[in-house]
Amino acid sequence: MSNVAATVDAGLQAASAPAGPAREFAAAFATNRGALIAFVIFALVVFVAVFAPLVAFHDPVQQWRDHMLVPPVWHSGGSLAFPLGTDELGRDIFARLAHGARVSLLIGLASVVLALVPGVALGLIAAFYQRVASPLIMRLMD
User: Fold this and answer.
1) Per-residue CA distances from 71 to 52, 66, 79, 91, 127 (Å)
2) Is the pLDDT score of 7 beyond 60?
3) Label partner for 139 (CA 20 to 30 A): which of 11, 44, 102, 111?
4) Cβ–Cβ contacts within 10 Å for residue 48, how many?
């Protein structure tokens, strides 16, 4: 009987233990509706960008001369073949947006990586040579 009581007591202590930073962040993030909506939209854009060749039905540069200026599907005259319609040259707008998002996310990722490399290098130099390099790098005023 004492083993059962000890197990229940240990379970209660674990449940009342303070949450870690990741759990606190997830709980706060889950209660913020704006953050959840933004996350869902961002995840949708990333999904469409990553899987653009599979999601987009048409090639983004292919011209459909018989379907110039087709309105979006929710307007009268819209077509399910072109969910967001076509432009004045007959190109599928959804395919162009999906492939454009792919390029934009790739450029954003490349710029972050290019900024990360010198930032980490300068941070390491400032940490190892605190007396000489840190004031020069961080522009501290004495």
Assistant:
1) 21, 13, 8, 12, 58
2) no
3) 111
4) 18
